[in-house]
Amino acid sequence: MNFKNKMSSVLIAPAFLWLIALMVVPCVMILVLGFFQRGIYGGIEYNFTLENFQLVFDSLYAGIFLSSARIAGTATIIAVFIGYFAAYAIATSPKKWQPTLLFFAVLPFWSNYLIRTYAWIVLLNREGLLVGFSKWLGIDGGIPSILYTESAVILGLVYNYLPFVILSCYAPLARMNPDFREASTDLGASNFTTFRRITLPLSVPGIAAGAVFVFVLSIGNFITPALLGGGRFQMIGNVIYAQFLTANDWPLGAALSMVLIGIMMILLMIQASAAQRSIGQKNKEQLDG
Amino acid sequence: MNNENTLLSIQNISKHFNDSKAVDGLSLDIYENEFFALLGSSGSGKTTLLRMLAGLETPTEGQILLDDKDMVPVHASKRPVNLMFQSYALFPHMSVEQNIAYGLEMERMERSLIDKKVQEMLEIIQLEKMAKRRPDQLSGGQRQRVALARALVKKPRLLLLDEPLGALDKKLRSEMQLELKRLQHEVGITFVIVTHDQEEALVMADRIAIMRDGNLLQCGTPQEIYEHPKDRFAADFIGEMNFLPGVVQGDSIIASSKRKISVMSTNGFEDGESVVAAIRPERMSLFLENAENSIEGKVHTSAYHGMDILLHVSTEFGEKPISVRVPIHSVGDKPFKAGDSVTLYWYEKDTRVFANK
Predict the structure, then answer these.
(1) Does A274 lie at the interface with B, CB-CB under 8 angstroms?
(2) CB contact under 8 A, B134 and A281
(3) What is the count of residue pairs from A and B with beta carbons less than 8 Å apart?
(4) ipTM above 0.90, yes or no
């Protein structure tokens, strides 16, 4: 090992230890509970069992997993669609404006997640701005409030995670060699064909990164469904929350968490390996280009 | 030049960016089947001109007639003109054959015909075995050939090449110069190449246009441009040139040291005008019979170039030493030392006269 390697190990050690001691160890301690029995009056009986996992794949919880995935998936599709075109608009705007536009895109991050979510309640409730606006437009009785429905939850998720998509899509679009688009035009392609066959495929790594981000953060989210869903229906995050804090069934909560974390890890790994491949390709281009 | 049918006629074309004039009222004709080089330093407007021909820039004014049809209103994607980018701009997510097929797919050509044409093109550039590779799995020279194939396969009336050899190393570059020339001959398409490398232009082009400040300085065959440069700038830009300052007197030039330099023609300059006599280093010699001009001097530096020796000789003509190329066979193995006395000879026919400015 040379000096440079030693140096980087020394530098990375604190962060690594921090992660192990305060993140991995406590998580593992909780997650192993999934393999034990629940005590009759709460608490844990340390007898090994796989019952909890059988329960997870039982129709009740599997159904909640599926509906959570559906909600997260819908939010992801909408966020990617809006976010990609926002990123495209920013990347094609004059260079001097781009930092400002990006700043505005991530501005909501500077405020508290709860406050942002409560703000949506104000907008969406029966006396809220949206319904009021529709009344003002002359719709009789106004449009029905979507607060405490699945749509409100999806809206909240899209709103909260949109900046991730914008940022991750902006990067490949801004980095893309403008000659690619001109070459496509020169070879006879219309602007739409150039977008479909050149720009869009080359921004897939950014889209994938943004999509995985939104999906992973959405499927485990429990604040947005609790506030905007009004507790009328549950996502898997709410169920886990309830197992630990109200039902006092830590083993089942641990088993559910483990399956959820497993899903997230698989998605992140797929995305990371895809990104790795395209980075390798880019580096090579830069070396020779 | 095979024939002189005008293919492209650029008429009084200008391109202004805000207040700078990248191209300023330039007119130029390019003939069919010609290998034409636009030569100029950076900022001379050569790339802007090329991009206007491709349709990637809109001229501020002027016309571009291709086969007598004005191209200015025609969108880049509809012009029978293709551009090979300096960066090659190969699509990184497509294989070699997909890159080459792209332009044909845009013409909605039948798949079987596309495959056939791509195959032909791969044979011409000798990359049949690389058809499935992606651009990042190719060497620089191979990528250059794929970029060329992608533009050529569309059989454009005019192929534009922006510094096509700029990214290659020196040895590969001189190979590709001849390769490009051979290919141009083989496919019979008019090539317009942009370069800042005067040697490249001399080797490859049938005709060269030297550009300066958004306009043409001189246009002609490599030999015309090299042997009869229009002015001092053109003479200096192409190859090496010695400039000896003096004043016109009759049909000679009198240097400040009173030495007389005889010339064939004073190039229209009259008695008393301040001029320079210009001689190429390879037109001077240490041994020359019946030469009208000679000058004594001392060797300043001597550089061995393999095929010849480049001497810098200090003389009475100003502070800048005179360059002279001495063929290796004429001096044998005898080295020159700084301070050696030499006499340089040259013919009056090899002496050009330009304004001294």
Answers:
(1) no
(2) yes
(3) 68
(4) no
| Distance separating alpha carbons of residues B312 and B298, to the nearest angstrom | 9
- Interface mutation vs chain A, best among B58, B136, B150, B157, most A CBs within 10 Å: B136
- Cα-based angle A136, A138, A139 (whole degrees, multiple of 5): 110
Query: Which two structure tokens, joined as six digits, stand for B294?
Result: 């000679």
- Laid out side by side, the sheet with B6-17 consists of B20-31, B6-17, B61-66, B69-70
User: Which residues have a Cβ under 8 Å from the Cβ of A215 and sit 6 or more positions away?
Assistant: A72, A73, A75, A76, A267
**A88 and A165 Cβ atoms separated by less than 8 Å:** no
In this structure, are residues B210 and B236 in contact, taking their beta carbons and an 8 Å threshold?
A: no
Domains for chain B: give ranges and CATH numbers.
3-232 (3.40.50.300), 241-355 (2.40.50.140)
Taking the model in full, what pTM does it have? 0.83
Q: pLDDT digits over B110-156, tens only?
A: 999 999 999 999 998 889 999 999 999 999 889 999 999 999 999 99
What's the pLDDT tens digit per position in A166-196?
999 999 999 999 999 999 999 999 999 999 9
Specify the CATH number of the domain A55-279: 1.10.3720.10
* Closest to A196 measured CA to CA, from A215, A209, A181, A183: A181
The confidence band for A287, taking pLDDT boundaries of 50, 70 and 90, is very low
Q: What angle do CA B140, B142, B143 make, to 5 degrees?
A: 65
